[in-house]
Specification:
single chain; alpha/beta; D-Maltodextrin-Binding Protein, domain 2; 5-stranded mixed beta sheet; 8 helices; 14 strands; 26% strand; globular; disordered N terminus
């Protein structure tokens, strides 16, 4: 899952040459997807991989659609979908009431949460220990980790990706990172200098997003998603990437 980003400007397409897509109201599903958030979505060897990418690929097949994945920074996804530039947004997007005012959500596919990553020798044991502004907290900008820091601690240091935040932590430029638990496990795995604190800061549900008004696509998407969940295929895909991060 390393060497994720091959080109900052690249638009990578996973093309499924199928006809129809009538259920979803169009032949092509253009998807704005987080470029650097393993195990959910990441670029490796010129291809978009991860839980989100694999789920989208399978649902597109079920809908008889052609899928095009457009990797970008997390902070650009919701505004782009809200404006209708893409029909779907993906990248471990937490369902929140604030975001419901801007976009439609699919059914949730993963329950996760925000956690704290700190150096192994850090005196920090829990979030309240970071309340003092002298502690620099790294977050990925516009995420729920960013929101948690602002609402419960203090203004954080913002990065375009968790990868950059973790790198800054390893270089002692900050004292902690708040990020998704699954991505934290992926980033910290094999790094003896960092650890994840055991108590989650939040519990969250992740989902795909659609522009307001894309109810036909949303309903068709959710129908196939429910079929995948019932058959066990959803759990199979999530488990595959969880095990890769171990």
């Amino acid at each position: 899952m390393k060497n994720l980003l091959k080109s900052a400007a690249a638009v990578l397409c996973l093309v499924l040459p199928l006809a129809g897509c009538g259920k979803a109201g169009g032949k092509v599903l253009h998807v704005a997807i987080e470029r650097n958030s393993p195990p959910f979505s990441y670029v490796e060897d010129g291809k978009v991989r991860g839980i989100d990418a694999e789920l989208l690929k399978e649902i597109a097949l079920r809908l008889n659609c052609r899928l095009e994945l457009h990797p970008m920074n997390f902070g650009d996804i919701i505004p782009a979908v809200q404006k209708g530039k893409y029909r779907i947004g993906a990248g471990s997007i937490t369902i929140t009431e604030e975001r419901r005012k801007k976009v439609l959500f699919s059914l949730p596919y993963v329950t996760s949460g925000q956690v704290l990553v700190v150096p192994v020798d850090s005196p920090v044991k829990r979030a309240v220990d970071l309340a003092n502004p002298k502690y620099r907290i790294g977050v990925q900008q516009t995420t729920t980790g960013d929101q948690y820091a602002v609402r419960n601690l203090h203004e954080p240091v913002r990065f375009e990706s968790v990868k950059l935040a973790i790198a800054a932590l390893a270089e002692k430029k900050i004292e902690a990172v708040i990020c998704d638990s699954l991505e934290a496990e992926d980033r910290v795995n094999g790094n003896s200098m960092l650890k994840i604190l055991p108590i989650p800061l939040t519990y969250e549900e992740y989902a795909f997003i659609f522009p307001q008004g894309e109810t036909t696509l949303q309903k068709a998407f959710d129908k196939e998603f429910l079929a995948m969940r019932k058959s066990g295929r959803l759990r199979e895909i999530v488990t595959k990437y969880e095990e890769q991060g171990e």
